[in-house]
Amino acid sequence: MKTIGNLIWLVFGGFVIAMEYFMSSILMMLSIIGIPFGLQTLKMGILALWPFGSRVVTSEDSSGCLNTIMNVIWILCGGFWIAVTHIILGVLLCITIIGIPFGKQHFKFIKLAFFPFGKQIVDA
């Protein structure tokens, strides 16, 4: 069931949002300062391609001020626009009955789009 859900997810916005994450990852990695941001968005892009069967948990070392600072920088550099894309795709998908589960998945991604640092992706 996870495989079918993931394949349908790719059609209903998963591929678009993953490409957005990958493009922002490449742009961030152009500078040395942006490499940690690029690596984190690369992880989020992989999760956006295949979200069903994975979950996001708070990592053990997430209680530092460095994660907070990096999350604030991320929001200013690209997280806001990716979150807006999640909102738009989520609303469009929730208009149809079939798209409601995928719209809800986009709404779950909004929190991750704003605060990716201090999070870890694990298999469910």
TrEMBL record:
Name of one Pfam family that matches: YccF
Record-annotated membrane-spanning stretches: 6-23, 72-102
InterPro entries referenced in this protein's UniProt entry, alphabetically: Inner_membrane_protein (IPR052937), UCP028777 (IPR031308), YccF (IPR005185)
The keyword 4Fe-4S is annotated on this UniProt entry: no
GO cellular component, one term: plasma membrane
Stretches assigned to the Inner membrane component domain: 4-53, 69-119
Keyword Membrane set for record: yes
Key words, A-Z: Membrane, Transmembrane, Transmembrane helix
Superkingdom of source: Bacteria
Protein's name in the database: Uncharacterized membrane protein YccF, DUF307 family
